[in-house]
């Protein structure tokens, strides 16, 4: 009955813990390294552990183990003397009238001990029930809310979908609700749109930078940096539509711009200066490497008027032509607003 038991290796040095502290963001699965050989410990000195089994020990299973020989040592939390793994074996030893039992000790805190208890009970012995696993997932989410659904699922033997349902049901506050820690221990944002925006800004400022440098500066993966650069080169938004936050602000429409201008009785809102926009735009790979992108920049160069240029231009218009030129300016402004509306609809 113990042929499928993986030998437990026990951490013997508390300075080299393998579990994440509550404030840390690692997500390693419970691992116990080999340490000192098992020692015989008085059964009376041991306490029941924080077992993931909601119904406690099974008397039938205890009877089976009491008739077995050469059972593996139990695992005990040294600081509390509570049993992490092996309560059935402990009950069986008592039933046989033994006074001592072979023990391997684990160094770590209570949360780490619980993780190890769940891991050990999943790997061997009497299987945990679905209710046991769900209760364990709830406990782990409370201890380590930054863990991803997949990391918790791997630790409890549940599906990521079930863990996600438990997370929503518990409404657990997280110290960093914007991140999740995956099974590989890497930190990933729940909302990746911010990282993609940062990557697009880095690419705009450093269009020739290697992907690895872009990814490191923006805090995203190399794959994400590559996708952002390809989207920019194709003239698309760096954040796919399905990945944008539901509450992301959309640019104001051209109709709203007209309303604002009318309310201000002809006073335009604070403008964006073309030279500052041009500097970043021309460095964007989507513009820099595209013929139509470069043509667009040259076209805007000849059609944008900076406020500082108005004085000389207005003085150059003869008085009897000013009304006609004003109407022409309004027509051009309307064309620009239609252009802006078309851009916003395609954004």
From TrEMBL:
Comp. bias intervals (Basic and acidic residues): 226-236
Source domain of life: Bacteria
Region (Disordered): 225-257
Annotated ParB-like N-terminal domain residues: 39-122
Annotated SUPFAM superfamilies: ParB/Sulfiredoxin
InterPro entries per record: ParB/Sulfiredoxin_sf, ParB_N
Protein name in UniProt: ParB-like N-terminal domain-containing protein
Lineage: Bacteria, Bacillati, Actinomycetota, Actinomycetes, Micromonosporales
């Amino acid at each position: 009955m113990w042929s499928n038991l993986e030998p437990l290796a026990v951490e013997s040095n508390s300075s080299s813990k393998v579990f994440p502290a509550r404030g840390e963001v690692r997500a390693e699965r419970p691992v116990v390294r080999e340490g000192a050989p098992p020692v015989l410990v008085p059964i009376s000195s041991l306490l029941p552990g924080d077992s993931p089994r909601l119904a406690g020990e099974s008397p039938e299973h205890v009877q089976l183990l009491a008739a077995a020989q050469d059972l593996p040592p139990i695992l005990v939390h040294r600081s509390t003397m509570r049993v992490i793994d092996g309560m059935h074996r402990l009950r069986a030893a008592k039933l046989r009238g033994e006074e001592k039992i072979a023990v391997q000790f684990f160094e770590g805190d209570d949360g780490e001990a619980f993780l190890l208890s769940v891991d050990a009970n999943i790997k061997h012995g009497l299987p945990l029930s679905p209710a046991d696993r769900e209760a364990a997932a709830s406990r782990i989410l409370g201890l380590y809310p930054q863990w991803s659904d997949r990391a918790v699922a791997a630790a409890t033997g549940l599906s990521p979908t079930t863990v996600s349902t438990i997370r929503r049901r518990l409404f657990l506050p997280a110290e960093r609700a914007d991140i999740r820690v995956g099974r590989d221990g890497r930190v990933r944002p729940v909302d990746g749109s911010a990282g993609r925006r940062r990557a697009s800004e880095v690419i705009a400022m450093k269009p020739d930078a290697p992907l690895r440098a872009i990814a490191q500066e923006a805090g995203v993966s190399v794959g994400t940096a590559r996708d952002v650069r390809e989207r920019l080169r194709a003239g698309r938004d760096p954040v796919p539509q399905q990945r944008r936050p539901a509450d992301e602000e959309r640019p104001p429409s051209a109709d709203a711009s007209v309303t604002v201008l009318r309310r201000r009785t002809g006073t335009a809102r604070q403008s964006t200066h073309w030279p500052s926009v041009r500097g970043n735009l021309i460095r964007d790979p989507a513009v820099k490497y595209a013929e139509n992108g470069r043509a667009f920049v040259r076209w805007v160069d000849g059609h944008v008027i900076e406020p500082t240029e108005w004085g000389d231009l207005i003085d150059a218009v003869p008085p009897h032509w000013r009304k006609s030129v004003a109407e022409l300016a309004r027509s051009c402004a309307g064309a620009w607003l239609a252009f802006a509306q078309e851009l916003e609809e395609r954004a």
